[in-house]
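Quick one:
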Amino acid sequence: MTEPLFRDDAYLSVAEATVISADEAGIVLDRSLFYPSGGGQPGDSGHLETSDGAEVPITTAVYGEGRTAIVLKPAEGAALPAPGSRVVQHLDWATRYRHMRIHTALHLLSVVLPYPVTGGQIGAGEGRLDFDMPDEIPDKAEVTAAVMAHVAADHPITTEWITDEELTANPGLVKTMKVKPPMGQGRVRLVRIGESLDLQPCGGTHVRSTAEVGEVHIAKIEKKGKINRRVRLRFGPLPQGEE
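Output:
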């Protein structure tokens, strides 16, 4: 069992841990700063510092079988720490923070475009959501302006928990059609934006307020099927000529 430190404090970037196991499958710690790949968000990277000062580069993190352990994937050829030893985790914070900002921006996008979400992906510079959108393709500038209005409003972002049964009784909380929130452990984490702007199940990392997202824009809206639309969101202002 790995304690997911990122779930309670997404801003924690350095933390000690004890090595539970280390082999060709990866490194398992008793507590992890590293977010494991899932829900469209990439696994974190960084390095472990051993007691003798050596560094073990970590390229990504994934869930182990049963999702109870988080497995850190070391760089090829890296020396592995001994089970039972203490290490200090160092997160690639710059990349993680960009993931947090993009992830939060995608939640805002799902507010502006209130359609069923059929897929999504988070990157360090761009994110996307796929929607079942039977209406006409929206204008990029209008969607950008609506998202940025929510960013500028500086809505607080908080988390709360409900039981599996409560989520089953409130299916409207789930926006994603193909990616279901993890259930089976008795409770599900919800991410709330503002008092009532958005509330949905999510295990990913987010910023503390929408203002931290910074400037973003809708880069592209692609037709992927009869009613499926892929909306790409990127950091920075909408390029001139596309307003």
